[in-house]
Design goal:
A three-stranded parallel sheet has the order 2-1-3, covered by helices on one side. By secondary structure, the chain is α/β, with parallel strands linked by helices. It has one domain.
């Protein structure tokens, strides 16, 4: 395996598509989608409850997902 981390694919609910965090993740090379094909992380419609301070954990989610080894 190389040292370059793989970009992740996020599925987000359209109601939360305007979060500035998605633009930041997209600028890092991640794919942000609002439809189903082939995704790694699903962020559902109740995520609107996440306060801006809680959204800072999205970076931690990315780090943990990169550690996942697929069969």
């Amino acid at each position: 395996m190389g040292k370059t981390p793989k970009p992740l694919r996020f599925l987000i609910h359209p109601d939360i598509a305007d979060w500035p965090e998605w633009a930041e993740l997209a600028s890092q090379g991640h794919t942000i989608r609002t439809d189903w094909p082939d995704v790694d992380i699903v962020v559902g419609p109740r995520a609107w409850r996440l306060l801006p301070t809680m959204r800072t954990y999205l970076g931690a989610v990315v780090k943990e997902m990169r550690k996942v080894v697929y069969p």
